[in-house]
Amino acid sequence: MLDIGAILHVFAQQGSFVAMGPALANLDWTNLRTFLEVAQRGSAVGAADRLGVDVTTVRRRLALLQASLGMALLFKTGRSLQLTVEGERIRGIISQMADLSREISRDATDAARDMVGVVRISTMEGFGSFFLAPRLNEFVGRHPKLAVELVASQTILNLSEREADLSLNMVRPHHGRLMVRRAGYFGVGLYGSRDYLRKVGHPRDRSELSHHEFITYVDELISVPHVRWLPDIADRPRIRLTCTSLVGQFEAALAGAGLAMLPHFMTYGRAGLVRVMPSEVNLVRDWWLVVHQDLQSVPRIRAAIDFVVEIMRRDQSVLLGS
Q1: CA distance 168 to 203
Q2: What is the pLDDT of residues 106-123, one digit of tens each?
Q3: Does the N-terminal or the C-terminal CB of the chain have fewer CB atoms within 10 Å?
């Protein structure tokens, strides 16, 4: 729907009209457009054919418009309709509004075709920082008119409230008008620094984990239950340090504070951390890609979805720790 008030505000700043602005801003654009068609064709019949309505509807709209303005815009001469002085002035204003309306529509179409704008991607902190962020330069390189907002958060944003355009998370939603697909998998392993393992020893099986200290989440502050990885490998682990941030746990393990359960994509290509008991400790989890149904066909969102699926397939070895 055309925002008449906003457009008229622009015209007022340009000096296109003065007194008529507030009155026109409260009018129905359908009536204004009908008047413009009548003014251009000189008859209600011609306007009706152009608009695809009957003549009675055209006349009713003209009557409503003139009554709302409190002035006559047209007078009849023979079989044609002519503009009054006020009618000429109003036609000039409405013509500018119609031109601006077409320009807005053209710009919106061009933006969709050229994929101009912003894509906001929401995902969890570790995945966003260590896997997605280093690869987004490839995406913006393909689409120079697109910008990306990466929201790396411990909580899941509400797509129904349009807090993000698409989301990548471990939790599969089951409610709302959402398109959900499995984007890929990732593996989680047990890691420690070389210095730590040199001092405490390299565990050979789970029974020896009782001699080690662990870094993990602050349990009561976990917002995504799927990250409770430690109970899967140790019944009563000795917790030395807890942190709500997975990146913080990574840094603490790197500094030698203990062993930590970390996704393989965080340790890939980074020296300093050693994988412990790879054959015994290798959890696999899903990544779910979620987008609101109203956005899934928007070109810039579609491009982002295709890119995420592409890199997750291409870099599967990074995700699974192969």
Answers
A1: 34
A2: 655 555 555 788 999 999
A3: N
Task: Give the helix/strand (H/E) hosting 77.
Answer: strand 74-77
Computed from CA positions of residues 129, 131, 137, 140, in that sequence, does the dihedral angle turn out positive or negative? negative
Say which residue, 126 or 105, is predicted with more confidence: 126
Q: Which of 132, 114, 113 is nearest to 122 (CA)?
A: 132
Whether residue 201 contacts residue 277, with contact meaning beta carbons closer than 8 Å, is answered with: no
Residue 242: strand, helix, or coil: strand
Q: In the predicted model, is pLDDT for residue 59 greater than 60? A: yes
Residue 12 has pLDDT above 50, yes or no: no
Residue appearing with tokens 């291409």: 314
Residue 320 CB-half CA count within 13 A? 12
217 neighbors 227 (Cβ within 8 angstroms)? yes
Given the structure tokens 């109970």, which residue do they identify? 231
Strand partners, 16: none
**Dihedrals φ, ψ of 199, to 5°?**
-80, -45
Contact 70, 27 (CB under 8 A): no
Distance CA(265)–CA(315), nearest Å, equals 10
Using DSSP, state whether 13 is helix, strand or coil. helix
Helix (H, G, I), strand (E, B) or coil at 257: coil
Q: At what angle do helices 4-14 and 85-114 cross, to 10 degrees?
A: 110
Residues with Cβ within 8 Å of 64's Cβ and at least 6 positions away in sequence, in order, are: 28, 31
Q: Which of 10-24, 61-75, 149-163, 290-304 has the least mean pLDDT?
A: 10-24
Ranges of H-type helices in the chain: 4-14, 20-25, 29-41, 44-51, 55-69, 85-114, 125-127, 136-142, 194-200, 246-254, 264-267, 299-314, 316-320
Residues shown for the chain: 322
